[in-house]
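ok so i was messing around last nite and threw this chain in just to see what happens. nothing serious, just curious
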Amino acid sequence: MLFLRNIPARNQRAFTLIELLVVITIIAILAAVLVPVLTPAKAKAKSAGCLNNLRQLALGWTMYADDNNGTLVGNLPQPNPETSWVNGYFSPQFPATNQAIIRQGKLYAYVANPSVFHCPADTAQIGGVPNVLSYSMNGWMGSRTMNQGQLTVSSTYRTFARESEISAISATARLWVFSDEDSSTLNDGWFMVTMDDRQPFASFPGVHHQHGGGMTFADGHAQIFKLHDPATVPGKYISAANADWILFKQMTTEH
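result:
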């Protein structure tokens, strides 16, 4: 009978401390070189994902109007799942992390995927749980709210409740419908723009994409809207003369 015994392997040795340090240093150098290269690519991928989400919302918005004799899906600042594209404002009953505000909205039947309502670059959370909604709709679209009550502004500005009211003007490619909104002001799916400058950026556009946010327009195209003025910062005072605010108003409605 043969008895096997452990035979020490030949020509094997452990790395020396210096060799390990050299390997670690090389890895650190490679990481330092690759991170600046990969970070823009990751940011670009998130921007592309955001724009894809917005295009799907825009398609659902159009399909809803087609199925409802040209009436645009409702867009209201009050909670109303029977008429609003999402179920109103975030409240204790429907917090920002609860998908009910998405699923109970009128648009969900046309965009039946909760992830579409969330920007890939939006990191806002409550208790470690991501918010379910990153986008809101132009407050001048989907209702007459901006011409009613305390929100009444000059009657020369148009609200749009029907598809024909948008197609009747020549600037459909300029009018935005859905936009990223900063989590500091996103408390419903309704984006308020005060054309009379009473409160510039009462609702603040998203800054998830290199100080800009995704936006889709009435003709269906989507793009990243960049804020160029250094003073355009969420939570800070915004002057009515702010260039970003002026441009934003021009994209919101018209006389």
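not much to say yet. The mean pLDDT is 86.
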